Amino acid sequence: MKEKLLEIRASALDAAAAAQDEASIEKVRIDYLGKKGALTAILRGMGALSAQERPVIGQLANEVRTAIEAALSERGGQLKAQALDRRLAAEKLDVTAPGRKPAVGQRHPLAKVEAELCEIFTGMGFDIVEGPEVEYDKYNFEKLNIPKNHPARDTQDTFYITENILLRSQTSPVQVRTMEQRKPPIRIISPGRVYRSDAVDATHSPVFHQLEGLVVDRGITMGDLKGMLEYFAEKLFGEGTRLRFRPHHFPFTEPSAEVDVSCFVCGGKGCRVCKGEGWIEILGAGMVHPSVLAGCDIDPDVYSGFAFGLGIERIVMRKYNINDMRLLYENDLRFLRQF
Ligand code: DAH
Q1: What's the 216 CA to ligand 1 centre distance in angstroms?
Q2: Side-chain half-sphere exposure of 284, counting CA atoms within 13 A
Q3: What are the residue boundaries of the structural domains of the chain, listed by start?
Q4: Which residues line ligand 1 (CB under 6 A)?
Q5: Dist. CA 1 → ligand 1 center (Å)
């Protein structure tokens, strides 16, 4: 019986060492240690042994079992490690290979200038307020002193959704929306998209961008408007930039002005950028009309204010000397990468 046990051990250890995968390991376990296995059969036959032989054979049988279990687990561990090595080799990443550079974009010149404008005004304590592009006629026109049939509507023909809902033709309706919701002191700007029923050419687009400004408080004067705009112009176009106010008419301001800056290229002598004029028109402005204030429940005998509105495209075109507005919307990267 002893020889039989030694034989079992030798052949089980050989089989374990020869196993090439988990399944064959398991098969060796069943063949030798399982219920119907070779070692189990020996143990069953121990009843026939003499009282002296039994403990000796029993001890040997236990040693054989332990040896087989150890061999199986060692071989199992080897196989697992080999499998891992194979996987690591197969899935190898070369971390030293040069990476693929992601294409880094940049801001569109319109967005860039808009951000610059916002930064200048927020630096002066203005809040940024946004209004809807689909707007009521009431806010775009009526409450800005432009009733139906007013001739000022001719220059601001836009796209109508219904008779009383339209695509806003200016950012000025945000003035009214703000004055309805906030009470003075008010100091806001409102950048955004506006629409007009204009054919596309080098200086017109049915969609463009404006930035509106509004200040309302006690004792606000035209002097405040001029001082604020002078500071703004120097920030945007450089120190020494001068302003020129030309009388104008806007229905929602009184008095009203168109405002020019001295040419930031030639300083006022006249050049290609200012078309020989020395001045560049940049915005419309004025003192908020008393009836616009009153229409928003702000007492014009107590409060006064100024407002201004500028076209962002116009500033971008002058600043970067772009002569065709369409270039700003075509999204040709060769053009956009220049800014
Ligand atoms: N909304 C005017 C336009 O589109 C620009 C403008 C002029 C806005 C005077 C103002 C202002 O706030 O006071 O032509």
Answers
A1: 16
A2: 17
A3: 2-90, 109-336
A4: 170, 172, 212, 250, 253, 284-286, 307-309
A5: 111
Q: What is the DSSP string of 35-56?
A: TTSHHHHHHHGGGGS-TTHHHH
> How far is it, in rounded angstroms, from Cα 263 to Cα 77?
82
Tokens found for residue 24: 């064959």
Q: pTM of the prediction?
A: 0.72
The strand pairing partners of 195, in sequence order, are: 207
Pull the structure tokens for residue 127. Answer: 């809040």
pLDDT digits over 158-209, tens only?
Answer: 999 999 999 999 999 999 999 999 999 999 999 999 999 999 999 999 999 9
C-alpha dist (Å) from residue 168 to 132, 159, 165, 204, 295: 8, 8, 9, 16, 19
* Residue having the nearest C-alpha atom to atom 2 of ligand 1: 309
CATH number of 109-336: 3.30.930.10
325: nearest Cα among 233, 157, 206, 156: 206
